[in-house]
Amino acid sequence: MAIFEPSKADASPLMEIEDLVIRFPIRKGGKRAFITPVDHVSFSLRESEVLSIVGESGSGKSTIGRTLVRVNVPSHGRVLYQGRDVSHIKGAELRLYRSAIQMIFQDPFGSLNPVRTVEQHLTFPLRKYEQVTGDKLSARIDELLGRVGLTPVRETRSKYPHELSGGQRQRVAIARALAVGPRVLVADEPISMLDVSIRAGILELMNELKRDFRISFLYITHDLASARYFGDRILVLYGGRVMELAPSSELIRNPLHPYTRLLLAASPGNPSRGPLPETSNSAPNLLEGRRGCPFADRCPLVTDVCRDEVPDLVDHGTSQLRHFVACHHA
Amino acid sequence: MPEHTPVLELSHVSVAYRTAAGPVQAVNDVSLVVMPNEIVGLVGESGSGKSTMAYAIMRLLRGNAYVSGGSIRVLGRDVYAMGRQELRKFRWRHMSMVFQSAMSALNPVITVETQLVDTLRSHLPNMSVSEAKDRAANLLELVRIDPVNLKSYPHQLSGGMRQRVVIAIAIALEPELVIMDEPTTALDVVVQRSILDRLQEIQADKRFSVLFISHDFSLVSELSSRMAIMYAGRIVEEAPASSLSSIEGHHPYTEGLLRAIPKLTADEITIKGIKGHPPDLVDLPVGCAFHPRCPRAYEPCRLFRPEILATESGRVECHLFAEKEVL
Q1: Does residue B260 sit at the A interface (CB-CB below 8 Å)?
Q2: Please, which pLDDT band fits residue B327 given cuts at 50, 70 and 90?
Q3: Which of B218, B277, B278 lies at the smallest CB-CB distance from A269?
Q4: Cβ-Cβ contacts under 8 Å, A275 against chain B
Q5: Residues of A in contact with B269 (CB under 8 A)
Q6: Which residues on chain B are in Cβ contact (under 8 Å) with A234?
């Protein structure tokens, strides 16, 4: 059990993702080919830090999240947790790792079992991972439900998912993730299916978990406003590659990558937005062996070098304020 | 069409669903007017009745849903007083609708061109096939799709392109009223923006009216001139979109929504949700339906349904505003 102890408050990151590549086989014209939805991505996550990953559909953001919880296995590169490579661990080791990192899904209707009560949803992980039984188990369930704001606890325990609202269901999913005492939560669009009036409550809850339990979050979203609100840093992903990575306010105030600027110009609620640059809306090419910057086809600043060479992720910030951009023209 | 005749006039409209437990009111006594050349936003959460409202206007309610009261007039004509043939000719020629799911609105086994040509020719029988094909190509250009895609089937197009085709079909006959029910919700933000920018340009050019239905407050307020906010089947507030840039002075539900949305650029980024969750329509709270969630609810809210009160620039359904007038 000693391997995955909660980390001391040191400066070294809790998780490091190094040069991560995910390949999936596809059929193209009857032949086997590969796409790379995640293409040489590196980042780190500190304790009690929220890293927002922003991108549109097909950017690879969910694939990264799923790789962190080891639903996907890296094709290349490493995932380090507390300095240990967890990319290929199996069996008991993997189970232990999963008590340190848990996932919250977008659809709380799909992620809960319709024929199980709330209590049953929480009993399973507590028994399996924490070996809690009897009165202790019951007390833990009450504690978890109270923590996520599902009160009165007595009433909630015996309810089935269909008897709960979307927001309450998402709270059950969060309680279930918390049951095993994780250090990292991967939250994949946890609020995008919820009503507007409910979303803020879930964001507030996640903020409390970050503050009170020092849990780190990988917050996956397509919405820049909530990414900025919840995230300490924002990572902008396009076509499986990191375009820009900076502290949230810095990224919104001073976007350096043309794709980030495009996203900002397109986001609702941006009073200073100008007209959208004339670009195509084509989806990025994810085929293995593509050349150049994945955004080149849509980029208003594109030049020949963009189509030939992949730009490196370079720090354009200061030592206090690191601001990484992958663009030949930044 | 004289400028002062409303394109759409909803007067005390109620829509109910027949259920085993008796009728459930999904839309409850809703009145709303849309004038020519105007974009009106209708905002609400799931279950607020906004989509039911759209289907009721188009007379497309199916199954156990029915209009239980009030009248719906489009261009001054009662939609529910028309005969079948009359309605068939009227619909799409004068009012059309853009549905949320483009994939299910388009026929998967017919090319884009045929779908556009069929739409045109079924309403304009004098139009020749070649004329209709020319027009179809123009329509695609209008929504910024290369006409080479005319021969494509829906599955060959991206989600954004499919939704553009659906918009092209909706405006094909130049109707006076286009109802859009969450037309871009399923799309990526950049695609959404470019479609809506184009929609605004086309609207400014063709001068049709739009009832734009969405759950996305900031999106609707940028697009429309006037907004109606629905809660539990009722319009609780109607106000100019510009007034929603300030949080104060609105229905408590509207204020709650405004506080619940993280702002992209503002310095102040604390947000606050509305406690509780939207009510079950089968079991609506007595009095004002919002009172169990309202931070400012007091005695009358729990007992009586509030009256509709005119404000400076719109109307609001809230006891707090009645109080103000007395004072």
Answers
A1: yes
A2: very low
A3: B218
A4: 197
A5: 228-229
A6: none
CATH of residue A88:
3.40.50.300
Rounded to an integer, what distance in angstroms lies between the CA atom of residue A269 and that of residue A259?
Answer: 18
Amino acid sitting at position B101: S
In this structure, what token pair is assigned to residue B231? Answer: 């809660």
Domain that holds residue A141: 114-181
B8-94+175-326 maps to which CATH number? 3.40.50.300
| Separation between Cα atoms, residue A294 and residue A217, nearest integer Å | 27
- Which of B158, B165, B193, B220 is the best mutation test for A, with the most CBs of A within 10 A? B193
Cβ-based contacts under 8 A for chains A and B: 113
> Which chain A residues have a beta carbon less than 8 Å from that of B46?
166, 195
Q: Where are the domains of chain B?
A: 8-94+175-326, 113-171
Residues of chain A with pLDDT under 50: 1-9
Interface of A with B (CB under 8 A): 56-57, 165-168, 195-204, 222-226, 228-229, 252, 262-272, 275-276, 281-283
Give the pair of three-digit tokens for residue B171.
Answer: 């405006």
Summarised one tens digit per residue, pLDDT across range A80-124 is 999 999 999 999 999 999 999 999 998 888 899 999 999 999 999
- Tens digit of each residue's pLDDT (9 = 90 or more) over B72-108: 999 999 999 999 999 999 999 999 999 888 778 999 9
Closest-CA distance, B90 to chain A, in angstroms, reads: 35
* DSSP state, residue A159: -
pTM: 0.90
- Please check whether residues A37 and A71 belong to one and the same domain: yes
pLDDT at A329: 94
Mean of the per-residue pLDDT values of chain B: 91
A152 prior amide bond cis, ω within 30: yes
DSSP A143: H
ipTM of the complex: 0.85
The dihedrals phi and psi of B277, each to the nearest 5 degrees, come to: -145, 165
Distance between CA atoms of A284 and A57, rounded to whole angstroms? 10
Residues of B in contact with A264 (CB under 8 A): 264
Please list, in sequence order, all residues whose beta carbon lies within 8 angstroms of the beta carbon of residue A37, skipping any fewer than 6 positions away.
A22, A24, A58, A60, A63, A240, A286
Whether residue A161 is found in the same domain as residue A278: no
